[in-house]
Amino acid sequence: MASTFGTLLRISTWGESHGGGVGVVIDGCPPRLPLSEADIQPDLDRRRPGQSDIVTPRKEEDTCTILSGVFRGVTLGTPISIMVRNADARPEAYREMETHFRPSHADYTYQAKYGVRNWEGGGRSSARETIGRVAAGAVAKKILRALYPEIEILAWVSTVHDIGSSVDAAVVTARDIEANAVRCPDPAAATLMIERIKQVRGEGDSVGGVIEAVVRGCPAGLGEPVFDRLEADLAKAMLSLPATKGFEIGSGFGGTRLRGSEHNDPYQMEDGKVRTTSNRSGGVQGGISNGEHVTFRIAFKPTATIAKNQDTVTVEGNVSTLAARGRHDPCVVPRAVPIVEAMTALVLCDHALRQRALDVLPR
Amino acid sequence: MASTFGTLLRISTWGESHGGGVGVVIDGCPPRLPLSEADIQPDLDRRRPGQSDIVTPRKEEDTCTILSGVFRGVTLGTPISIMVRNADARPEAYREMETHFRPSHADYTYQAKYGVRNWEGGGRSSARETIGRVAAGAVAKKILRALYPEIEILAWVSTVHDIGSSVDAAVVTARDIEANAVRCPDPAAATLMIERIKQVRGEGDSVGGVIEAVVRGCPAGLGEPVFDRLEADLAKAMLSLPATKGFEIGSGFGGTRLRGSEHNDPYQMEDGKVRTTSNRSGGVQGGISNGEHVTFRIAFKPTATIAKNQDTVTVEGNVSTLAARGRHDPCVVPRAVPIVEAMTALVLCDHALRQRALDVLPR
Amino acid sequence: MASTFGTLLRISTWGESHGGGVGVVIDGCPPRLPLSEADIQPDLDRRRPGQSDIVTPRKEEDTCTILSGVFRGVTLGTPISIMVRNADARPEAYREMETHFRPSHADYTYQAKYGVRNWEGGGRSSARETIGRVAAGAVAKKILRALYPEIEILAWVSTVHDIGSSVDAAVVTARDIEANAVRCPDPAAATLMIERIKQVRGEGDSVGGVIEAVVRGCPAGLGEPVFDRLEADLAKAMLSLPATKGFEIGSGFGGTRLRGSEHNDPYQMEDGKVRTTSNRSGGVQGGISNGEHVTFRIAFKPTATIAKNQDTVTVEGNVSTLAARGRHDPCVVPRAVPIVEAMTALVLCDHALRQRALDVLPR
Amino acid sequence: MASTFGTLLRISTWGESHGGGVGVVIDGCPPRLPLSEADIQPDLDRRRPGQSDIVTPRKEEDTCTILSGVFRGVTLGTPISIMVRNADARPEAYREMETHFRPSHADYTYQAKYGVRNWEGGGRSSARETIGRVAAGAVAKKILRALYPEIEILAWVSTVHDIGSSVDAAVVTARDIEANAVRCPDPAAATLMIERIKQVRGEGDSVGGVIEAVVRGCPAGLGEPVFDRLEADLAKAMLSLPATKGFEIGSGFGGTRLRGSEHNDPYQMEDGKVRTTSNRSGGVQGGISNGEHVTFRIAFKPTATIAKNQDTVTVEGNVSTLAARGRHDPCVVPRAVPIVEAMTALVLCDHALRQRALDVLPR
Lengths: 363, 363, 363, 363
Fold this sequence. Notes:
Four copies of one chain form a homotetramer. By secondary structure, chain A is of the alpha+beta class.
């Protein structure tokens, strides 16, 4: 059940990097939502390998098929099964991984946990698993827009290695983000980032980065204390992604250095609504959205699989070295952007439905 | 169901700051575990108000009673209900909160979500809710020690405001941590921290801080990809705590600035075991523990409730100001230390039981 | 987690027959519902021992206390903790059960499963556990009435031993049911049943019976195929009660002897609504309520604990005999009536909230 | 989430009768289990249409493909996705169902609940949905046999219409059951049943029946009071199947007519084990298996879709009549036998894993 996520909108992903394919079953999608593959494919295209010269060259069209749950263009309220076939599998490129554990990859821990693993392409620990999340996220986005026409979920690359950027979460657009291969809406920074990624790839190395996200038009009242606080579920969603090492919402770690009088967001009235004049809370207070922009950041470590020679051990317990082959992203953040958006949409949609189920008596 | 946490070891907390009391029901505790209130009370004592001169002066003994699930000193395998009565309730001190929303507190969002709230002492959003977590965490610690006698879970205050500290996660002891009121095992830093907390309290203000935690002796193989990765469940657990704004594991946000060749933890053999020579992974790779120390940090914002005058609005939507009364911690991190330990124990214990259920066929 | 029931309205019961008490935590109750102990006590009074001369003489007032989740007379949307203290515990009356397994009771299976058990009064397997269910059921009834003012949930004793009755589910009233100690609304049958129960009790024996239930005013559309079909969740709810051996809905086992042309319920229009002219479906088709009366029956075996001498074995594995002491119902069905109603209300309320969460897009 | 079943071994089925196909994702299967399509296909073949002259003539090979979770012949511990394509879809045969509600079928209730439905072949309410259950059940059987080599799960047709049979649950074999098309191991009764089914089919009508099941070699200790009692989960599993109206375990409804002294199963010692000399409990006491044969029966109503003319209404609310075309089983029980076995295996396997997770401390 470790591959199931969500309470009311519940997804179950399946699939290994090399095998019959990857997919997702979405349970709990409201009926009567117009839906077709055309709603899903664009986000898959943003995630797929081979889309630019700074990502893995693995050739996958990642064309999705909806196998159930949709009839004559609308959802039935029954499970939606979506599948993508694996095409460009090259198990031979991973043969070393059968015997050698890649440092800081999941090879060893999968072996330790399961006593068996699919070493071809990383198996289940491959980022291909996220295809199901992105497909489901596209459905979640459609549900959210049907419920809250104003809602917008955007993520972008905020830093790569030590290269920062300057982006205003209040106004950034999808077009800005998609304007370059690294998905950083600060064009000057993007140029440097792309350069850096190419450089480290040339050196057989990799780099990390930070993705920032915003939800604009999020209604107040989403999030379910005490355990399913909105930021708790967002944190879980993000830390469930490969290569993530950190999450912060609003002021984050930086906010720990402030006093309460500096950190608190004063309330005011605006057009008859309770609003805050600052947003160090990141749109969430007491675990519940307050109607302001929800803003958060996720840390992605440098890709573990690198071509440089590294000390490691073999499955048999012998000391050895490994210079990995296979096709890998030198930096995961550009392709992780749609994945972060997808997980955000899944969390918000689930909480939107939960609030619908809770808020049933007259106010 | 938002007050339920865990898959196999499942806790349900209940209770408001002012009301009949607070408590927890623990479902799924293995039978035949020796257990009494004496196993639980020490952690509650570390959490309770009034324990030192840098925390809230609310007078609560927080004496717990086990109401079910234990018979003649051992657990029955049935739900364990644990309860603590509220003693020193002073609803009159919170009367302003009936009408005024405290900036950056949960007052407004609870009102927006539920259309009603218990404004006395913060109601359900009060840190008193964490009593149930700490009690359940003490039980989880006992289960873990029964399964893995070597396991140790320790948390401590790493920073307060801008005051850092120097602590070695590999050797720090519970005695070091409990040696001072702020629970920072670096004595020089602790002195400065205590001073700072007293100072801001004197000014009617508050400060934030960071808690660091380590799990030593954690076996390899805990954590359930893809969604219930160990770091994902830890992140959720921590971000479900009041006043948290961030979580990072291992290298965290700092690790994003490294190259793969700098970040990867090389493998070696040690006493016939696969070990790493560094631990930037923080003990988790691919969502599964690798047998190294699990290390992570949590950001706590400054306490929202301060005595300084702040701009806010009333329930009726009028602009107003508020200088909060009531009894509050000027800095939450000293008392949050046992809470972080408790949530860590709950996550690990749940995953330990899940691994027991999965790993049933011969290797 | 085996003591948790429900998806959106989720209850966790706790407590043993002899111990600190019994109770329930209700998570997911909608906020703003008027609620006090006075809403709950009447159903507890219908369940409690000592209420008549055909039930166990154990003296328990079963007075409930709401410990959380309610503020100034309305629910907060936070967990509602309800507790009843055990008063008339007499562990000495059960001392034989420490060493002897009662035939067809839970003594042996609890020992086999848990390796330990609270033998005082049956511990967790005692019907006292159902106090939490009845308390939660009273809350569920209030929620249901707030959502569907016309809804009525009624259960009654349909047979005792070989004594049947004649009751019209379409018109029977709570007053009819409560008119006699056995809760059979057919007065002539009730007299015979009461006589029979007294007779077998006099002989140190026990008898079984059948409870029938109806939900009138149930809206069409409740129930969630494929696994959480309404009849599936009702069946689980009922078979989770002590002493139950069977469940049937609508035509039940008798319906297997009909042809489709005899069994099918023809549709007609009535006041602009789709209605059926017969109700062999028992108000459920394809797992979903159809707007007709939901009708079902539950089989309760004779009470296992009897005063007659029986062959059994001891904990040490020695052949022995046992004539049980302790206080027990000679027939469980009269007191099981409010428990069946409570479980019915919990299932329906949960499904009502689930339908609210699913049916969110315009029709 | 209504299409998800199980706690630790969790299955999610998907698919409509007419559409891309049907399938299941199995999450929580222990790693290192030898598994291939050859383990699954035999049970699918027992379930598939067209297998004999007393079932629906729809032509489906129902050939399954394992898409994930298996590597080099063994399970990985990751989700196992299994798929079957729909081949012989004939939507035109169901065109009347677009406008007419079949009496006692799911047509109307699906429309009422979801506001939309796939009327082709019954959509999600079609028995084709059970393909996923049967596939998953085959996996569950393999896991169970790996854990308890002695375990046997058998179901058979006990009655058809008013034709009973005589079968000894203690000794009946799979070969006996599969010896005839109706799957009744009493050959004389089987002949009559087959005749009756052909007769009613000839008349455009249908009949119901009862399936009986036994689990032999079930260890003591499975089942989780209070809500997840073994019989409760079996009842839910069975009532979640299309066309079911009742469930009874052990003595069932008949047992309500006995006295406790007649009903109780006395204990004795046999080869050092606690055994009962009778089995009116049906192998379960207090919600937990006691090591005896687990025996239960399920009532299946006559197939709702019949060729005879019936009164009904249209989607627009007009009174009309309907004589259904399409291909349907005149009696569902022969093909339901492997489905009942599958659901039984899923329930037992889930409880076996749950007991593994609970029983972790030394006895």
